[in-house]
Amino acid sequence: MNYRHAYHAGNFADCMKHALLVSLLSSFLRKPSPFVVLDTHAGIGRYDLEGTEAEKTQEWRSGIGLLEQEGPESPLAPWLELVKKAGLPHRYPGSPMLASFMLRPQDQLICCEKHPEDKRVLYGLFTRTPNVFVHERDGYEALRALLPPKDAKRGLVLIDPPFEQTDEFKRLVEAVQTIRTRFPTGVIAIWYPIKHRTPVRTFLTALQDAGVRDMLTAELLMAPPTDPDRLNGSGLLVIKPPFGFAEQAEAQLARLKTVLGAHDYSVTQISPE
Ligand code: SAM
User: Fold this and answer.
1) 227 labelled ligand-binding
2) Where does the entry annotate site (Interaction with substrate rRNA) (predicted)?
3) What is the CATH number of the domain that holds 255?
4) Which residue among 30, 65, 130, 234 has its CA within the 20 to 30 Å range from the CA of 225?
């Protein structure tokens, strides 16, 4: 539990993950029936871009720092509007805050954060938001406890672990199987790092071999994935992507590639519906 997201908030990987998250959540707004978002590894919800952690790495400068001038016609605009609402250029919203902005009264956000100090900060952010619930608990264990959602038939499970453990990809394969059993209609989004291709390929193949259908990957590479000691890129695996998401992801990643000066991007359906 050494990982602190405050050092990385607003970097290229966050920009990719959060822009795509907003697109996924937008699709739930097309229908009036309630939806639930389960954010299993939630972090502190909002990050200080002027704090000591952000100052130390300056990672946000080559991420959100390059996107402040995007106009309303940009495919990134719906996400950037929420980032500004959270306090850009001083503060940057994490996944719980972005999701909370998109909830209607009938929807719910459930956050799990294992680090007690981070949970305390996150809890403080939502004391006046009645449909956001914050748990101090293991996000993987929460899948069994909190799914299927009690109050909605639709939902998104976001899994964004720190990848400190060497068996994280293996745990993710088990997590997908648990979610599919307990909440088969749920949309699943899993963030993963791309250092070298091999662990990512092994992860995705394990899911294909387990018969998981309707999987799409959206990836942004800042450099060729050949140096295993470097975060060369990042990906979002989406299981049961909503209608139109692939096209939105394509447009968003193309724009991120241009503005962030990335090496490459891709959106790929890796198993059929
Ligand atoms: N999803 C957040 C966002 O986009 O703003 C960032 C999450 S950060 C990458 C991962 C978080 O998971 C850290 O805050 C860490 O303390 C927490 N964490 C680590 N292991 C966990 C576990 N087993 N269950 C729940 N949270 C965990």
Assistant:
1) no
2) 3
3) 3.40.50.150
4) 65
